[in-house]
C-alpha cells in the first residue's frame, strides 16, 4: 500500500509533526488503527533502525511499545483514574503518575475529586467530561514515553477552555518525538513540519502549509472552503 510504504520510508524516520488530510476518508480506518503489523520486521527500514540495531529480534509487543495513540474515541476502563493512567506503564511509581498528570494538565481536576487518583470513572470514563478524558489519555501517553505519537485530532468537539488545556498538554507530549496527526480541521495543522494530502488512498500532495497553498491544488481548495474570509482578503 503506497501510504504505508511512505510511512516507513519517510514519516517515521524524522522527529517532528506530520499531518494527514484524507479528503475522502479512504484511508482513515487504516491510519486510525495503525500499528506495527504494517511494518516488515525483515526489512531494515528507518523506523526499525531507530528502535533497534537488530531488527530481526524485535517482537511485535516491543514495537507497539514505541507507539502512543491519542484519539477522539478515547479508550478508558471501568476503574480508577490511577489505573487508567498506569496502563501506559504498568510498573510506574506514584510520583511518575502524578508527574505525567501534571504535564497533561490533569492533576488539578483529579485532585479536586474526593478520592483523587483513586476516583472511579465508570465504564468508558462516563463520569468524566470529554476534556477530562482527553487529558487522562494524554497523561497515559506521557507515562508510556513512546517515540512515535499518533493523534486523531484530539481537540475536536471541545469547548475553548478544554481545547486550550489539551493543546498545551499535547505540545509537551510531542517534544522530541515523531508525531502523525490525522487532521479534520486545517487550522490545527498549519505549523506541521509536513502535510500529506490523501485522495483515493494515494499521496496526492505533500509539503508545508505555505508550499501547499502555493501549489494551488486540493489543499488550497479545502483551505479556501474552511477559511473564506482569508480567500476574500487575498483576492481584494
TrEMBL record:
UniProt KW keywords: ATP-binding, Cell membrane, Membrane, Nucleotide-binding, Transmembrane, Transmembrane helix, Transport
Pfam families with a match to the protein in the record: ABC_tran (PF00005)
Coiled coil (residue ranges): none
Xref: InterPro entries: ABC1_TM_dom, ABC1_TM_sf, ABC_transporter-like_ATP-bd, ABC_transporter-like_CS, P-loop_NTPase, Type_1_exporter
ABC transporter domain location: 1-225
A Gene Ontology molecular function term of the record: ATP hydrolysis activity
Gene3D superfamilies noted in UniProt: ABC transporter type 1, transmembrane domain (1.20.1560.10), P-loop containing nucleotide triphosphate hydrolases (3.40.50.300)
Topology within the bilayer: Multi-pass membrane protein
Predominant subcellular localization, coarse grouping: membrane
Ranges where the ABC transmembrane type-1 domain occurs: 1-59
GO cellular component, one term: plasma membrane
Localisation per UniProt entry: Cell membrane
PANTHER family: ATP-BINDING CASSETTE SUB-FAMILY B, ATP-BINDING CASSETTE SUB-FAMILY B MEMBER 6
Protein name: ATP-binding cassette domain-containing protein
Amino acid at each position: 500500500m503506497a501510504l504505508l510504504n511512505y510511512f516507513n520510508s519517510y514519516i517515521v524516520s524524522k522527529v517532528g509533526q506530520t499531518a494527514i488530510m484524507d479528503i475522502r476518508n479512504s484511508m482513515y480506518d487504516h491510519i486510525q488503527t495503525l500499528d506495527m503489523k504494517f511494518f516488515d520486521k525483515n526489512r531494515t527500514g528507518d523506523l526499525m533502525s531507530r528502535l533497534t540495531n537488530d531488527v530481526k529480534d524485535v517482537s511485535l509487543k516491543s514495537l507497539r511499545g514505541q507507539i502512543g495513540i491519542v484519539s477522539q474515541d478515547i479508550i478508558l476502563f471501568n476503574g480508577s483514574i490511577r489505573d487508567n493512567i498506569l496502563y501506559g506503564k504498568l510498573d510506574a511509581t506514584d510520583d511518575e503518575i502524578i508527574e505525567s498528570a501534571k504535564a497533561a494538565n490533569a492533576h488539578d481536576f483529579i485532585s479536586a475529586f474526593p478520592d483523587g487518583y483513586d476516583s472511579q470513572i465508570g465504564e468508558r470514563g462516563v463520569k468524566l467530561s470529554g476534556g477530562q478524558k482527553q487529558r487522562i489519555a494524554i497523561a497515559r501517553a506521557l507515562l508510556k514515553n513512546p517515540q512515535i505519537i499518533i493523534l486523531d485530532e484530539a481537540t475536536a468537539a471541545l469547548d475553548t477552555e478544554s481545547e486550550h488545556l489539551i493543546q498545551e498538554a499535547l505540545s509537551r507530549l510531542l517534544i522530541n518525538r515523531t508525531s502523525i496527526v490525522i487532521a479534520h480541521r486545517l487550522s490545527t495543522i498549519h505549523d506541521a513540519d509536513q502535510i500529506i494530502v490523501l485522495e483515493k488512498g494515494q499521496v496526492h500532495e505533500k509539503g508545508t502549509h505555505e508550499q501547499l497553498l502555493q501549489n494551488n491544488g486540493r489543499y488550497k481548495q479545502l483551505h479556501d472552503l474552511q477559511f473564506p474570509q482569508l480567500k476574500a482578503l487575498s483576492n481584494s
